[in-house]
Amino acid sequence: MISSVCVSTYRGRKSGNKPPSRSCLKEEMARGEDSDKITINVGGTRHETYKSTLRTLPGTRLAWLVESDSHGSCESDAEPPSGTEFFFDRHPGIFAYVLNYYRTGKLHCPADACGPLFEEELAFWGIDETDVEP
């Protein structure tokens, strides 16, 4: 999880778009604690990301998953043990685009997916289909 400081420094360079410094990257890697990591298995494909990434789209299924994880469930106040993997029997290829939307804020429809299937997956994850960029 690279901070906006590292990214903006990278994008703002005029001398050949050099990558962020090693010290900046090491600092960011140290901040990404294991306790913030989450594994989501979609259709047999494992995806790892940070809970903070999933909080970027409040009101969606994955944001709810992370919020219920941090607040405890109705049945128990205990958080799931670390290393818990959440499984969803959904289309793994389309989920990669969904997860990328959480990471980048940009949602694109894959060229090889049929429109109705893509819309169905977005509805399942709680994402408005009008968020798709042209």
UniProtKB/TrEMBL annotation:
Residues 8-30 are annotated as: Disordered. This is Potassium voltage-gated channel, Shaw-related subfamily, member 4. The gene is KCNC4. It comes from Nothobranchius korthausae. It is a multi-pass membrane protein. It is found in: Membrane. Keywords: Ion channel, Ion transport, Membrane, Transmembrane, Transmembrane helix, Transport. One of its GO terms (molecular function) is delayed rectifier potassium channel activity. Pfam families: BTB_2, Shal-type. One of its GO terms (cellular component) is presynaptic membrane. Residues 36-132 form the BTB domain. GO terms for biological process: action potential; protein homooligomerization. The keyword Chaperone does not apply.
